[in-house]
Amino acid sequence: MVNGPDGRQEGPEQVPEQAPAQPRALEVREATVRYEGADRPAVAGASFAVSRGEIVALTGPSGCGKSTLLRAIAGLEPLEAGAVLWEGEDLVRVPPHRRGFGLMFQDGQLFGHLSVAGNVAYGLRAQRVPRPERETRVGELLALVGLPDYGARSVTELSGGERQRVALARSLAPRPRLLLLDEPLSALDRGLRERLASELAVLLRRAGTTAILVTHDEEEARVIADRRIAMRDGRLEG
Ligand code: ADP
């Protein structure tokens, strides 16, 4: 310790007021999932957390347990052990449709009998959002994904890339507190996949989305996510 010019003792560098730690939105604690009859769990003791607004990628080879972990977070697979928490609340008794999480899959799973706008409005209808507000929100989302004039079209007329954009708009429309993306671009050909990966990175940030992306494609994970977590044989690495 030394004396400063004004005679005051200077201690170790003054620590500025501590910035509050990033609040944990999602926390997965020691999650284990085992399919019926399997001798080994598909996910074993997985622990990680996601902050609000953060985009985390789960990567690893096919069969390592990524989708299973994502489905467990969604509440679609029961946990054999461990817990999934949202802002500290254990979700064990909260069914998938009450978790406030959005899901988007590889094949989009659009409803063929509904128009593009009808698909995007689907979750809003389920939430009983009044029609004028619903129409405004659908317009915003279609603009966000670059398909502003597509509302009246049939989804059967769309290209693969357009379908995935509509699927993204549909999953974002109800403002999910967490978006779970399972290989959202894997069914597309390479050029389109690369272009859409960059677009997705921008769109998710513009919407302020907290998200978990499952992909076997490291480059895609690097482009889209803030942080990557590798999985192998049911376990998180690192
Ligand atoms: P990834 O998403 O990394 O490709 P999955 O989570 O789909 O991996 O699969 C992890 C393991 O669980 C694999 O061994 C797979 O065969 C098995 N598995 C996945 N789904 C089921 C299921 N519904 N029933 C039984 N085993 C499954």
Q: What is the structure about, briefly put?
A:
This protein has 238 residues and is an alpha/beta fold. Helix content is 30%, strand content 24%.
Q: Please, could you describe this protein's structure?
A:
This protein has helices spanning 66-74, 116-126, 131-144, 160-172, 190-206, 218-224, and strands spanning 2-3, 9-10, 24-33, 43-51, 55-59, 81-86, 89-90, 101-104, 178-182, 211-215, 227-232, 235-236. The protein is an alpha/beta fold and 238 residues long. Mean pLDDT is 90; it is low at 1-5.
List the helices and strands and how they pair.
Blueprint (H helix, E strand, L loop, with lengths): L1 E2 L5 E2 L13 E10 L9 E9 L3 E5 L6 H9 L6 E6 L2 E2 L10 E4 L11 H11 L4 H14 L15 H13 L5 E5 L7 H17 L4 E5 L2 H7 L2 E6 L2 E2 L2
Parallel strand pairs: 5-10, 5-11, 8-9, 9-10
Antiparallel strand pairs: 1-2, 3-4, 3-6, 6-7, 11-12
The protein binds adenosine-5'-diphosphate (ADP).
Overall radius of gyration: 21 Å
Secondary structure: number of strands? 12
Total helical elements: 6
What value does the average pLDDT take?
Answer: 90
Overall geometric form = globular
Instruction: Trace the largest sheet across and list its strands.
Output: 8-9-10-5-11-12
User: Ions, cofactors, ligands: which are bound?
Assistant: adenosine-5'-diphosphate
Structural class: alpha/beta
- Poorly predicted regions are 1-5
Please provide the ordered H/E string of secondary-structure elements: EEEEEHEEEHHHEHEHEE
Main sheet overview: 6 strands, mixed
- Give the N-terminus to C-terminus distance in angstroms: 39 Å
Beta percentage is 15-25%
